[in-house]
Amino acid sequence: MADPATAPPAVAEATGIGKRFGATVALRDAGISVAPGESHALVGRNGAGKSTLVGILTGLQQPDTGTLRFSGEPAPSVGDTDAWRSRVACVYQRSTVIGDLSVAENLFLNRQSPGALRPIRWTALRRRASELLGEYGVDIDPAARARDLTVEQRQFVEIARALSFGARFIILDEPTARLDARGIARLFDKLRDLQRQGVAFLFISHHLQEVYDLCTTVTVYRDARHIVTAPVADLDHDALVEAMTGESAAAPAAGAAPATGRATAATGAPLLDVTGLTLRDAYADVSLEVRAGEVVGLAGATASGNVRLAETLAGLHRADTGRIAVAGREVRASGVPAALAAGVGLVPEDRHHQGLVGSRSVAENATLTVTDQLGPYGTVLPSRTREFAERMIKDLDIRTPGAGTPVSALSGGNQQKVVVARALATDPHVLVAVRPTNGVDVRSKEFLLGRIRKVADDGRAALVVSDELDDLRACDRIVAMFHGRVVAEFGRGWRDEDLVAAMEGVAARPAQERDTEQGEEQEG
Ligand SMILES: Nc1ncnc2c1ncn2[C@@H]1O[C@H](COP(=O)(O)OP(=O)(O)OP(=O)(O)O)[C@@H](O)[C@H]1O
């Protein structure tokens, strides 16, 4: 270990941090120290206090107790935005770049410079933007509208912007949540590259493998407290899960059914029958069947069309041609109410836009789809709403002070559980779940996948739309899409590389063929 007397001060050091929200203690005497050039992971279960710490490290929230220093200096005063920006930046899973502006405008937005009052010279601005992007090895046209960028490109713009303010410490809060495998690989390459140039990272992720791939140090929080900080190499997967959950890694999550399901093929009636479905610019001629008792995976990377197909099933788009039948009846009318009435429940991709009303309570959000069951003649009885919601809070193990708490006060993972609860509230024939474990911790992931399995075990059907291998492993069968077409199907026992190859549009070849080829190579 470096001699503390000679080691450079931590780029960020928080000690004794306490933060409460009403009756909830979000952080209790917590701390973290990030060394220059270090890639430091912060992990913990949903609600452990990670986002609260990020809010404090970035000056968005004031701690009740504790101190914060950057490179040995006290944190800037509240409101001194430029000073905060030159010390720390945060790239969130949800982008902060402004869609209507160009990349160049986003890069130089709100930048206080002596010439700020002079008219903006667009050519010069673009040239500077292009230089800046080039300096950080980001290959994006500065004139492009930010809304036309991919999630990955937007993150690169945010990283370049952060670095251009002088920050050498970047917080990445679940940056991979909306990237596919290739996007993640490219992001990690960029981060490693920047790390070599002395940039330090605090990396928050629920994907523990990413922690091992990218980070050298890991800090675990649990129930608002700091539990451990150690070199990643000293904490294997089981030890990490144990630190996060406080229980031995071998113990199953409370209430979770085994996520691996059964070995026998489903023989139930088809509950979802899709034939020749086409939506222009999204997917073409997709046919697919999900039977009672089955969990089917609809695998595909970003732009494969799998998410749009899921949204079509839930009534959010109207297919150009083809037919959808649920429980033997063709769904003719379009729109969400028709899909709901037919028996389709949706867990949407983006819980912020399509899922939740943040200012409304957990109870209201969880029962939005079933208001007809909450009182006679179109009325909604608060007592019945609460009762219904309390059942769901228990059913999905939602951590909330109560059914009346606004959803926005819940941690990200618990918000996701509210979305799942709502989709299940109607007791749908078919549950369509898009990336259902996005943003949830290891244990909750097992729990949610177990809950989806239960939908099938109860005689219904589930379609899991995802590119996450853990989600897909919980399925009985997988249909893989690439560029809007179904390209492969897998029964149980598939190999990761074959499924990934199918999702990336590389034809998976039978093992026999590969063996022959290898043999020939050796001979030649
Ligand atoms: N604005 C707020 N009002 C009330 N409670 C809040 C607020 N922000 C956070 N909390 C509470 O503080 C606790 C810590 O939440 P935080 O969002 O920091 O957790 P997290 O570790 O980031 O979780 P996740 O992995 O689910 O995102 C939770 O119990 C949460 O409900």
TrEMBL record:
Coiled coil: none annotated. The keyword Ribonucleoprotein does not apply. One of its GO terms (molecular function) is ATP binding. PROSITE patterns: ABC_TRANSPORTER_1, ABC_TRANSPORTER_2. Residues 12-257, 266-508 form the ABC transporter domain. Keywords: ATP-binding, Nucleotide-binding, Repeat, Sugar transport, Transport. The keyword NAD does not apply. InterPro entries: AAA+_ATPase, ABC_carbohydrate_import_ATPase, ABC_transporter-like_ATP-bd, ABC_transporter-like_CS, P-loop_NTPase. PANTHER family: CARBOHYDRATE TRANSPORT ATP-BINDING PROTEIN MG119-RELATED (PTHR43790), GALACTOFURANOSE TRANSPORTER ATP-BINDING PROTEIN YTFR (PTHR43790:SF9). This is Simple sugar transport system ATP-binding protein. It comes from Actinacidiphila glaucinigra. The lineage of its organism: Bacteria, Bacillati, Actinomycetota, Actinomycetes, Kitasatosporales.
